[in-house]
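Dear U.,

Please find below the material for section 3 of the report. The protein was modelled together with L6N33NVT; I have listed the sequence and SMILES used, followed by the predicted complex structure.
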Amino acid sequence: MSKKVGVLLVNLGTPEQPTTQSVRKFLAEFLSDPRVVDIPRFIWLVILHGVILRIRPRKVAKLYQSIWFEDGSPLMHYSRQQQKALSEALADQNIPVELAMTYGKPSMADAGQSLAKQGVNHIVVLPLFPQNSKTSTGAAFDSLARSLKQCPHVPGITWVSDYHDHPGFIDALAASVTEYWAEFGRGERLLMSFHGVPERLEGLGDPYARQCRITAQMVADKLGLKEGEWLAAFQSRFGREEWVKPYTDATLESWGQQKFGRVDVIAPSFSVDCLETLEEIQIQNKEIYVEAGGQEYHYIPALNANAKNIEFLKTLVEQYLPDIR
Ligand SMILES: C=CC1=C(C)c2cc3[nH]c(cc4nc(cc5[nH]c(cc1n2)c(C)c5CCC(=O)O)C(CCC(=O)O)=C4C)c(C)c3C=C
Ligand SMILES: [Fe+2]
Ligand SMILES: [Fe+2]
């Protein structure tokens, strides 16, 4: 049978509105997923519905309001831009590109149906999580599988499990830093801040933290940075257990207390800018650094739909084509 290939970009999901109600709906779905929170089910559901979903949505809605774009959530805005740019880049090969979220809209089922309508019978699924974790990539896989449960004809599927050490990805990250430095000058240190996960997961075989360290080392090597000029750290700790260290906020506080001059921060686990970069890194962590005594703080944007990133994503998809056709 002849193969008609389509691409499915997958990201996490995001609230539809920056309101308490909408954030509650998003957090309820996301945090109920046993892939994301794997503590005993009954205890967790009591904590989630009894405490977290009563308090957190209002607080987090305010944070979303501080970064919301005219056309919606930043994560959705940049994900749409990526979809559009990649679909233009692959148009001459007749490869359509759709976008789906693990949680919420656009759903895997909607995106899959749209690809099917365009005659696609083989999907290259590209989760936009450069490093593989059960909590992000694994959850995306489950969501895709669930969406296919009622499907009478399951298409061919190529699953891109991660791209943490892909030379094109490392080049795109390094180029985004050098381009930023060329325009705005450079800091004394580069902090590479990755979304955190519980420390325990590494022992369970989750490759995420190890892959983050590899990404960071490769970017540092590409930029010619020596030890002491860069560090990999982990942000967004949630709950009481220990997460992978060092923590981004504690690191910045300590660097501020040591009266460091300028620090630059990149976020190589985020394909697009979102709450965790635009609010947590760019606003909250800057405050931590400056209030502790640090001088200057620059956040270098995520790759988003920049030309090098789209070129890289195109190359990544193309690498899989010979095996499919
Ligand atoms: C147990 C909690 C969480 C784990 C594990 C986790 C892993 C994880 N998350 C991302 C990417 C994103 N997370 C985002 C927001 C976010 N993450 C958590 C919790 C965990 N994440 C929460 C509760 C939230 C919502 C905000 C909040 O309440 O603090 C986002 C941003 C979404 C947006 O709309 O902008 C992204 C992206 C990865 C890659 C990952 C594991 C590797
Ligand atoms: Fe998260
Ligand atoms: Fe956060």
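For the text of the report, you could mention the following: DSSP finds eleven helices and eight strands in the chain.

Regards,
Y.
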